[in-house]
Specification:
With 289 residues, this protein is α/β, with parallel strands linked by helices. The protein contains 12 helices and 10 strands. Strands 6-2-1-7-8-10-9 form a 7-stranded mixed beta sheet, with helices on both faces. Helix 7 links the parallel strand 1 and strand 2. Helix 1 crosses helix 4 and helix 3 runs antiparallel to helix 5.
Length: 289
């Protein structure tokens, strides 16, 4: 028995549903959370237990039940400016290099893969907005995708609780870019309009990018994939990346021993670049402010 009162076969079916829909697997340390995570789903749909839930998934044609079940098993942990030093490095160096590389076409494309409820994408939108003069006359596209319907719904609204708004967001930015409402802190329209959020499975769906991504965030997502799925994910990320671009992973993630699609950036700590990049990136000292 894997946990709780459900049959072992119910857990196996649910784990299979999660992997087939998202590519993610459940580690032994997360399996015990299945029943607890799915209790609200079962209550909403009037289902008694996990065995009954599995039976309903097999026999029901309800897309809502399937979406709710998958959403509940996902880990949507995120917060504003997670690992602040990474955003400092991006603001000070990575964006400057991209600006030099793309100075003729004046276009910047940022893709947040596995964006969850949107805090990471809003962090970049605020950063770009605060560098307004540098990006005047540029087409800046910020795209956030996630397999979770619930998470993307929240991201599009841009409404956060007091607890969520205080996680990583300095007071000055909170006041500047969010309005306090009865329901929580709502991102101002100027920030919301800068981001295109959509439900996407990064393993099977093509993200709605108008041009290859210059900067890709895929943080704390690949660690939930099996090794074969992780290699497929890296291939998808490379396919969507511009020839000269940056990939941002989570603090506990790396490309070493995982893929030959990306290598550690020789200039920017914690960032990665396409391994087949052939055009030499200009030294940051030669880039005009």
């Amino acid at each position: 028995m894997m946990g709780g009162s459900a049959s072992e076969s119910a857990y196996r079916v649910l784990m299979g549903v999660l992997e087939s829909r998202t590519g993610q697997t459940l580690s032994p340390s997360r399996i015990w959370r299945i029943e607890m995570s799915l209790k609200p789903v079962m209550q909403r749909h009037g289902i008694a237990d996990l065995d009954a839930l599995v039976a309903a998934l097999v026999t029901s044609t309800s897309r809502a039940l399937l979406d709710d079940t998958v959403d509940a098993m996902l880990n949507n942990e995120t917060y504003f400016y997670r690992e602040y030093s990474v955003f400092d490095e991006i603001a000070a160096t990575a964006l400057e290099q991209i600006r030099e590389i793309n100075k003729l076409r004046r276009r910047l494309t940022i893709w947040h893969c596995g964006v969850s409820t949107g805090q990471e994408a809003y962090s970049m939108a605020m950063l770009i907005a605060e560098q307004g003069a540098k990006w005047a006359g540029w087409q800046v596209d910020i795209v956030g995708t996630d397999v979770s319907h619930h998470a993307i719904g929240r991201a599009r609204v841009g409404l956060y609780t007091q607890f969520e708004i205080q996680r990583g967001l300095p007071v000055q930015r909170m006041v500047r870019w969010f309005d306090q409402t009865e329901g929580g802190w709502l991102a101002k329209a100027d920030i919301r309009r800068r981001i295109d959020f959509s439900v996407q499975n990064m393993l099977t769906d093509r993200p709605p990018l108008a041009s290859p991504a210059d900067l890709i965030f895929c943080r704390n997502l690949l660690l939930y994939f099996s090794a074969p799925m992780r290699q497929k994910a890296f291939a998808r990320l490379r396919a969507m990346a511009a020839p000269q671009s940056f990939l941002v992973l989570g603090a506990g993630e790396t490309v070493l021993g995982q893929t030959d699609q990306f290598v550690a950036s020789p200039r920017l700590r914690g960032l990665y670049e396409p391994a087949d990049q052939q055009v030499r990136r200009p030294d940051s000292r030669s880039i005009a402010a």
